[in-house]
Amino acid sequence: MDTSWASLKVKLIPPITRTLQDFKFKSMTPVQAACIPMLLSHKDVVAEAVTGSGKTLAFLIPVLQILERREQKLKKHEIGALVVSPTRELATQIHEVLQGFLKHLPDRTSMLAVGGSYPSEDVDRFKANGAHILIGTPGRLEDLLGRQIADCGSFADGVRALEVLILDEADRLLDMGFHSTISTIIAYLPKQRRTGLFSATQTSDVVTLVRAGLRNPVQVKVKEKDATGDERTPKSLMNFYMECEPDKKFATLLAVLREKRSEKCMVFFPTCACVEYFTIILKETLKNMKILSLHGRMKDKRFKIFDEFRSLASGVLLCTDVMCRGVDIPRVDWVIQFDPPSSATAFVHRCGRTARIGNEGNAIVMLLPSETDYVEFIQINQKVTLRRLRPPAEVPDLLAKMRRMQLKDRNVMDKANRAFVSFIKSYAKHECSLILSVKELNFGHAATSFGLLRMPKMPELKDTTVPDFTPVEVDFNAIPYKDKQREQSRQRKMQEYEQTGEWPGMKPRKRKTEAWSEQKDKKRRKQRKKELKEMRAKNRFTAEEQDEVNEDFRLLKKLQKGKINSSAFDKHFGLDDD
Fold first, then answer.
1. In angstroms, rounded to a whole number, what is the distance separating the alpha carbons of residues 233 and 223?
2. How large is the average pLDDT for residues 550-558?
3. Please, which contacts does 430-433 make with residues 24 or more away whose CB atoms are closer than 8 Å?
4. Is 5-222's fold the same as 237-388's?
């Protein structure tokens, strides 16, 4: 099959072909060959292709071609195309790729609208430069579309000229949390438009597609050449699982990273707190490697860290699922998942950060002995086959070192506790709770792997003893913060606490005290009310008893509304005779 750009039935305009030559893209990928002609022939497209298959160009090229061939040229503040992306990083990446094309299209304008800046700044940019192509995240786009702009109408006025809507990583955009936002955005747009949904995984739910505003869409499902079955990861990606001892799981990760010190690795953790804590530990234990971290709570630093990691030849990025979708990082050799992700689709997207556009790559998910059924689950659910990879022969004993770091700096101890608590909470909410059951999790081994000094207070540990864990015998109040100002503040608060019995800045708990007799009466009234409801539900009343029961319920309602006191209620039921 001829996959050259010249083989397209619609001839591409010269600025696009020049950019393709600049990028050295000599031929189309399968998803590009399938989707570009469809969008250029006035059809809505729902495209599913393995991650890293070139979906960005599959919609950017038709967008530019359509806008350049438009009969009426777009005015300065008219928006011809809207690209909606789930994350800032992915939206930024799409905008960067677009700039390569706009070098040869000087009359075409674009704008990136994501969080991290004030919406008023986006308004000022739009007012000054316009945006024929607007790329952004759902929340920011919804905000901008509702704003009025002096002297140039509004974004809502601008999208009346819209020709193309693109929903990138559509399965995530249509998740529960994004439905209302996407619906609001679509309500501003003209119905006569072309729409494209692009993702590595797609829902077949017709209702979802209707909500996205598609009319009789063409579904495109692209498989790799020689692929067997329904694989959702590239052929060039080797997927592994590694079974780890539960009390040495993090130490095993450290041993794996030491073996790959000359390569580029991404390590996914379940929570922001885990990323922050383990970054501190790895920076101290792998001093000859570049260690970076990135998670959703970071604001200003995110783009800087993202760009730094993209430029590295080797190093480690610790991150959460904020980095699992769509972002293209050159030459990632290994993707390591410290825990199975909360959803099966996220597993595919995490793995897809490596082996992009035909390059080779490797992915590992680290499993406890109690979690190995996850291998079969991911095979059935996502059609991904995992091969067993044995852990390194030498796994260091990190417990003593991790504890020493906490004893030297209270900040590290605080982060360790927060990381462990957040890990347990995420584990308890896992999508695959039959395999990853919090009841089967050995809390003592997990705490040892985290290097905790003692077990933190949490509901899951209430009134229970934790086996397989040895706490450190130490005066925890004596552990200082390394930051002198923070430690001085803590010392002042401790002195105030010793004098007043209350910790500064915390509201004292007001305990409601009741006499024992009042507690007893309250309990009896509650029991009587329960009996009446049960009898009424089961229709166990004779005709003669019904009037009496109705009277009882009338009195209950009066008591609840404060129209009678408890003494009158007790007298009616004979409770005051005890």
1. 10
2. 70
3. 430/340, 430/342, 431/342, 431/343, 431/344, 432/340, 432/344, 432/374, 432/377
4. yes
The helix (H) or strand (E) run that includes residue 199 is strand 194-199
Q: How far apart are CA 281 and CA 291, in angstroms?
A: 10
Query: Could you report the per-residue pLDDT of 95-130, keeping only the tens digit for each?
Result: 999 999 999 999 999 999 998 778 899 999 999 999
Task: Look at the alpha carbons of 211, 214, 218, 220 in this order and tell me if their dihedral is positive or negative.
Answer: negative
Cross-strand pairs, 81: 133, 164
Is pLDDT at 355 greater than 70 in this prediction? no
Residue 90 has pLDDT above 70, yes or no: yes
User: Computed from CA positions of residues 345, 347, 352, 358, in that sequence, does the dihedral angle turn out positive or negative?
Assistant: negative
The backbone torsions φ and ψ at residue 328, rounded to the nearest 5 degrees and listed phi first, read -110, 110
Q: Domain extents for the chain? A: 5-222, 237-388, 399-500, 532-577
Long-range contacts, 12-18 (Cβ 8 Å, 24+): 12/61, 12/65, 13/64, 13/65, 13/68, 13/69, 14/104, 15/64, 15/68, 15/101, 15/104, 15/105, 16/61, 16/64, 16/65, 16/101, 16/104, 18/104
Residue 519 has pLDDT above 70, yes or no: no
Torsion of CA 379, 382, 387, 389, to 10 degrees: -120
**Each residue's pLDDT tens digit, 172-205:** 776 656 778 888 999 999 989 999 988 766 655 4
* pLDDT band at residue 571 using 50, 70 and 90 as cut-offs: low
Quote the pTM value. 0.66
- Confidence at 578, pLDDT banded by 50, 70, 90: very low
Q: Return the residue matching tokens 């007298």.
A: 571
**Can you name the residues that pair with 260 across neighbouring β-strands?**
none
The domain at 5-222 falls in which architecture? 3-Layer(aba) Sandwich (3.40)
Position 222 scores a pLDDT of 76
Residue type, 43: K
Q: Tell me the helices (H) and strands (E) count for the chain, helix number first.
A: 22, 14
Is 237-388 in CATH node 3.40.50.300?
A: yes
The number of beta carbons lying within 10 Å of the beta carbon of residue 448 is 23
3-state helix/strand/coil string of 238-298: EEEEEECCHHHHHHHHHHHHHHCCCCEEEEECCCHHHHHHHHHHHHHHCCCCCEEEECCCC
